[in-house]
Amino acid sequence: MSTTRWGQNNAMAQGTVQVTHTGTSRWRRRTGEYASLAAALEAAADGDVLTIAPGTYRENLVVQRAVTLRGPEGSPGSVRIAPLDGVPLIVRASAMVQDLHVEGQDAAAPALLVEEGTPELTDLRIVTRSAAGVEVRGGARPTVRRCTVDNPAGVGIAVLDGAGGVFEECEVVAAGQAGVAVRGGAHPRLERCRVHHASGNGLTATGENSALEAVGCEIYEVRGSGLQITQRATAHLTDCNVHRTTGDGVTLDTDAVLTLADCRIHEIPENAVDLRSRSVLTLTRTTVRQFGRNGLSVWDPGTRVDANQCEIFDSTGDYPAVWVSDGATAVLDSCRVHDVPDALFVLDRGSRADVVDSDLSQVRNTAVSVSDGATAQLDDCRIREAATGAWFRDHGSGGTLNSCTLDGVQTGVIVTKGADPTIERCTVDSPSEAGFYVSAGGRGTFLNCRVRGSTGYGFHVIDGCRTVLRRCRTERCARGGYEFADPAPDDGSGTGPVMDDCTSDESGSLRQPTAHEAAVETVRQSAGLLGSVPGQRAEQEPPTGAAEPEEPQKPVRTSKDVLGELDALVGLESVKREVRALTDMIEVGRRRQRAGLKAASVKRHLVFTGSPGTGKTTVARLYGEILASLDVLDKGHLVEVSRVDLVGEHIGSTAIRTQEAFERARDGVLFIDEAYALSPEDAGRDFGKEAIDTLVKLMEDHRDAVVVIVAGYTTEMQRFLSVNPGVASRFSRTITFGDYGPEELLRIVGQQADEHEYQLAQGTSEALLKYFTAIPKGPAFGNGRTARQTFEAMVERHASRVARLGDPSTDDLTLLYAEDLPDLP
After folding, report:
1. Taking the CB of residue 558, how many other CB atoms lie within 10 A of it?
2. How far apart are CA 190 and CA 227, in angstroms?
3. Is 754 exposed, middle or buried (0-12, 13-18, 19+ CB in 10 A)?
4. Residue 603 has pLDDT above 80, yes or no
5. How much is the pLDDT for 588?
6. Is residue 393 within 8 Å of residue 415, measured between CB atoms?
7. Cα(261)–Cα(254) distance, rounded to whole angstroms?
8. Can you tell me whether residue 699 is helix, strand or coil?
9. Which pLDDT score, from 0 to 100, does residue 542 have?
10. How far apart are CA 96 and CA 13, in angstroms?
């Protein structure tokens, strides 16, 4: 079939239809020129070519035959199909449509509707503000090439109700909702397409039998998820790029199935991939980076991720790279996870992670954390440069580490609170604290494990934990190969560690330790989690050359001077006796040591209980100064913290905050006010438990570097001490601070008056006694704080009274009268 080109002789070849639009000129049927596009389409037969002259056509076109409908060659975009309402272009046949500019004016109708056939749509530009830019439905299977869709009011491309088709090199430049939406059993394929600046999700597929395939596509700058698959839909993406979203990168929900191969997901402020409700994700050779929350977030029973040869790295937030919870499963095979706060967290009974031949490195906190009854299995994995290699946190949590290496970690494996993993043929190289650490009722079986070059211990088991060690080996461990400290009372649950055929380079073989001895003596103090612990300085010749002068030490008061200040405090007689008893024990112990006698061990960590305003912080400060005067602490300074200073908002941040507070208190006293707030009654997954666990470990690892005092109401502090089996054993003594009586509160006001050069007039003391006797002693009562606030209120009322005097005397300026007392609260 031949066509007549625009500008040539108007004689028409048979089977050719040409439509011209010249404004006011007459339409000449004898030359094949028709008065409207609709008339030309009506006259055309299958195989005919309709070439449209440049111009704007206010017609609704319906293509029902296999014709070719196109604009003039060399003038793309010169033909505008722009009716005032309705659908501008409907295709119901295997036609060819190309080089048209289609504009929709009807908010309720798509700009281009494809309902039947296998049409080819090429180089179209769709501009509209309607429900959909392009809508494909029913049995239609179009091939759409190099088309652009601009629809800031609705969906860019909608493929519905069993339709399909191929979209090649198309671009959605704006969408008020999803860029591409697939539902109702539709199944399109996208090749080398770009979807961006969508106000909804980039690509979305919903509903059973709905399927989406994308190859070489890019989804970015969307105000939602880059890709959303839900309600039994499936999708397969190859060599695609998802980035710069405001929501998750990829979202799967309710039995969704997705395969990602050779894809890249990055610059995501939320989860890079989030899947729930029995969804299944398979990733191959895919990279996930620069995510604000989790790289992979996997929830709910039946939900599963299988990742092979993938890389997850460069987190921008404080969340674990891989999060598996509520009974979900994750499998990582030959993967790399690095430069993240935490690598893998597995939580909740039924949750499981299987990690094979993978690298977890440059992890700021914990590489693998297993808690709340979850399970993790690691085979032939490498963990490098992490604060903690693996932490099995609590009862029911377990799994296996098999043939793994841990290098450059602070602690290789931690087992606490009833967790019971199996660690087999694993090697920990150069830990800065311990190779393996078990406390607070943790168990664990260690088979053929090795620790080399530890700055601390090789195996450190405390609290009488029933841990099994068989055929284990330690080499060059600075503090000792095996340490079994602080055995817990035998409650029938066990009698401490069980050892079989374990060796150390310090001793050829080790026997089973008794309840009151360690397997290997401590060699020296470790560098610890936060830095070196000052040890005994060796006497040596000063180095030659210029040396920087040492910073002068500030003068330290003697213990007698500090105890004098303690005695001067109002009330607190039982507290003073307790502190003096501790001081005497420490002082006599030092004298016995100088005499070559054994000194009783004094645990210096304390619990202060009582109401607010009873002097707990003041006594803690003086206690630190006393310990410094006795050379028990180098500085004796006080660092006061509370829950807000220790507990972070995100997984992993709590351990960091707690460690930082502990480091600030090094060589002094860490005072934790209202410590019971770390273990609320409805704790659930409260991060306060992590602060307590971290604190207990730090107190053990740095027992000589920091004194910890926890304070709070009496009843609440009893709950705090019971939350962790290792907590109560760390605090040797509880000191109770009683409420002040009226006479003591009066003395505090008198001290405040003397300090600020005021005097109590005659009768004011009696009025104050009556005031403090009558004042409510409820939760708002602040003891010493209430006394100070009362004095401040009296000074304010005094000022208001004296300001009205013309020439006040010295007595007027200094005397406080009963009338200056504030009203009772």
Report:
1. 12
2. 13
3. exposed
4. no
5. 83
6. no
7. 22
8. helix
9. 35
10. 20
What's the pLDDT at 674?
86
Look at phi and psi of residue 222 and say left if phi exceeds 0, alpha if psi is from -120 to 50, else beta: beta
Residue 427 has pLDDT above 90, yes or no: yes
How far is the CA of 479 from the CAs of 93, 447, 474, 530, in angstroms?
83, 22, 11, 16
Strands, E assignment, 82-193: 89-91, 96-98, 101-103, 112-114, 120-122, 125-127, 132-136, 143-145, 148-151, 155-159, 166-168, 171-175, 180-183, 189-191
Q: Is 643 helix (H, G, I), strand (E, B) or coil?
A: helix
Phi-psi domain of 117 (left: phi exceeds 0; alpha: psi -120 through 50; beta: other): left
Between CA 472 and CA 457 the distance in angstroms is 13
Average pLDDT over residues 95-118: 96
DSSP 61-98: EEE-SS-EEE--TT-TT-EEE--SSS-SEEE-SS-EEE
At 734-788, the pLDDT tens digits run 888 888 888 888 888 888 888 888 999 898 999 898 888 888 776 667 778 888 8
Q: What is the DSSP letter of 316?
A: S
Domain 559-736 bears CATH identifier 3.40.50.300: yes
Count of residues in the chain: 825
Q: Let me know: does 58 contact 84? Beta carbons within 8 Å.
A: yes
Nearest to 529 by CA among 442, 612, 426, 434: 434
Positive or negative torsion for Cα 587, 593, 595, 599: positive
Q: Which residues does 186 contact at the CB level (< 8 Å), separation at least 6?
A: 136, 137, 159, 160, 161, 162, 163, 164, 210, 211
pLDDT at 724: 62
Amino acid making up residue 204: T
CA distance linking residue 797 with residue 552, whole number of Å: 47
Is the CB of residue 64 less than 8 Å from the CB of residue 42? Answer: no
Q: What percent of the chain has pLDDT over 90?
A: 54
Pair of tokens at residue 24: 């006011």
CA distance 338 to 321: 9
Q: Annotate 191-207 with b (16+ C-beta within 10 A) or e (fewer).
A: bbbbbbbbbbbbbbbbe
Tell me 394's DSSP state. Answer: S
Asked if 737 and 611 touch (Cβ cutoff 8 Å), the reply is: yes
Taking the CA atoms of residue 20, residue 21, residue 26 and residue 28 in that order, the dihedral angle to the nearest 10 degrees is: 20
Structure tokens given for 707: 């004194």
| β-bridge partners, 604 | none
Q: How far is CA 32 from CA 22, 41, 71, 661, in A?
A: 14, 12, 16, 88
429: left (phi over 0), alpha (psi -120 to 50) or beta: beta
Q: Which amino acid is at 184?
A: G
pLDDT of residue 535: 30
Other CB atoms within a 10 A radius of the CB of residue 732 amount to: 14
Question: CA 49, CA 5: separation in Å to the nearest integer?
Answer: 11
Contact 358, 384 (CB under 8 A): no
Q: Are 113 and 86 in contact (CB under 8 A)?
A: no
Query: CATH topology of 559-736 equal to that of 742-820?
Result: no
How far apart CA 182 and CA 422 sit, in angstroms, is: 47
Let me know: does 639 contact 669? Beta carbons within 8 Å: yes
DSSP state of 564: H
* Distances from the Cα of 524 to the Cα of 106, 272, 433, 537, 758, angstroms: 82, 46, 12, 12, 57
Q: How confident is the model at residue 173 (pLDDT cuts 50, 70, 90)?
A: very high
Cα–Cα distance for residue pair 361/358, rounded to 1 Å: 10
Contacts of 538 (CB under 8 A, 6+ apart): none
Q: What angle do CA 249, 136, 42 make, to 5 degrees?
A: 155
> Could you please report the per-residue DSSP string of 453-480?
S-SSEEEEEETT---EEES-EEES-SSE
Say whether domain 15-244 belongs to CATH 3.40.50.2300: no
**Are β-strands 68-70 and 96-98 bridged in parallel, bridged antiparallel, or unpaired?**
parallel
Task: Enumerate the domain spans of the chain.
Answer: 15-244, 248-386, 559-736, 742-820
- The second-level CATH assignment, the architecture, of 742-820 is Orthogonal Bundle (1.10)
- Inter-residue contact 675 to 714 (CB < 8 Å): no
